[in-house]
TrEMBL record:
InterPro entries in the cross-refs: Bet_v_I/MLP, Bet_v_I_allergen, Plant_def-hormone_signal, START-like_dom_sf
GO molecular function: abscisic acid binding; protein phosphatase inhibitor activity; signaling receptor activity
Domain of life: Eukaryota
Entry keyword Transferase: no
Keyword 4Fe-4S: no
Protein name: ALLERGEN PRU AV putative-RELATED
Record-annotated Bet v I/Major latex protein domain positions: 12-99
Protein family membership: Belongs to the BetVI family.
SUPFAM superfamilies, alphabetized: Bet v1-like
Keywords assigned by UniProt, alphabetized: Pathogenesis-related protein, Plant defense
GO terms under biological process: abscisic acid-activated signaling pathway; defense response
GO cellular component terms, A-Z: cytoplasm; nucleus
């Protein structure tokens, strides 16, 4: 099947763009994803972790979509595909740190 591995799973390739430990930032790009293979060249995600007065942190994320030509993408599709995955990832990370406060 086009855009899928032989197992039928979605194809997704990532590239790390930058890691800045001092400023608590990192960015990566999705450079191949069969979800938008004809519409999007790449998507870059920039993350910045900001300390809170309570001792925790807030993660601020900016997403930049590089659209091919006159292609259009549906914002609902973005939320369905990546919004849910991101929310799930942060829930797993939060659960880990709550269970391991000294980590």
């Amino acid at each position: 099947m086009e855009g899928q591995e032989p197992s039928g799973r979605s194809l997704l390739l990532k590239r790390i763009e930058a890691i800045d430990e001092e400023n608590l930032t990192y960015s990566f790009s999705l450079i191949e994803a069969n979800v938008w293979k004809d519409a999007v060249e790449k998507v870059t995600y920039e993350h910045k972790f900001v300390p809170t007065p309570e001792g925790g942190s807030i993660c601020k994320r900016t997403s930049t979509y590089y659209i091919k030509g006159d292609a259009e993408i549906n914002k609902d599709q973005i939320n369905d595909v990546y919004g849910k995955k991101t929310a799930g990832l942060f829930k797993v990370i939060e659960a880990y740190f709550l269970a391991n406060p000294d980590a």
